[in-house]
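Researcher: We're reviewing a set of sequences before deciding which ones to prioritize for further study. For each one, I'd like a predicted 3D structure that I can look through quickly. This is Gfo/Idh/MocA family oxidoreductase. If possible, include the structure in token form so it fits the rest of the review sheet.
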Amino acid sequence: MSIEMDKVKIGVIGLGRLGMVHTEHLVTLISDAEVIAVCAVDKEQLMFAEENFGVTTYDDYKKMIDEAPIDAVVIVAPTGFHPEMTEYALNAGKHVFCEKPLGLEMPEVEDMATQINAHSDLVFQLGFMRRFDASYRHAKEIIDANGIGDIIYIRAYGIDPISGMESFTKFATDNDSGGIFVDMCIHDIDLIRWYTGMDPVETWAVGNDIAAPQLKAIGEFETGVATLRFENNMVATLIGGRHAAHGNQVEMEIMGSNGWIRIAQEPEKDFVTLFTNAGVVRPSMQSFSERFEEAFITELKDFIVNVKTNCQSDISVDDGIKALKIAKACKVSAETGDVVKIELS
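Model: Here's the predicted structure for Gfo/Idh/MocA family oxidoreductase, in token form for your review sheet.
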């Protein structure tokens, strides 16, 4: 089904940090989109959206999907709700952009995938936005051109600023985040699969709460480290955490037989360096939304184009399922201390 219109009419579900970012981008920066309605359970968030974006507000996502004159939904709700919201939207004839991960429980995710595949006339796109970041895309081009030879080892960091610990603790107390590997490292898992064209066969992982002991009471690791082994013995290390004092630290190093690639070694905010009696200071980015702003905009533009041209996303539901299974295997390994075989079939 193609959309014969100038603008794709959007309903957004979820107005937390990222939901508000997506909504603002859709309203202010993406000319082919028009946000008609938003849905959230927080009344203050709804009031803000109504006053600042001029949209109709709902506290029931089903009512929004049934009543609002929309073509597509952008789902930015807590992960556990992704499967039911996606299925409801697809059955209502709406295209779906869904933030990662697909969900938390594999039976629900597999049912979700069945519904996505059954609605091949509708676009489904998963929010692995790092594939749209210019630096990661450049690295992909170098790898595909055999610019560093065969990949030997990959190291990936994803560390949130410690300033966000209070808000994360509140979120994870009220919602199941999926844990550090599902919630954070899944982006790097997707990139590693994208770069290598391979899937890992086993993992060994550990986690701790040294930097945030309060997380232990809600079953969360503050820091998680996982080693992934591939069939050809290539190795990848994933490091996820929430304790960076300086800002948002996201980086990746790809070691090849003929060269290395290092992406975002330092989270530099801009080109300003301050020289004072306190020393030399370089401002750092303070949030993932700041670091990946262009990627978030580009992925939403891609979704709108896909809806208008009736083209499926390059990121498949199978990519989402495999990344989730790998992340969950890392979680099991960290919880048990065992090496875990990764079963993707």
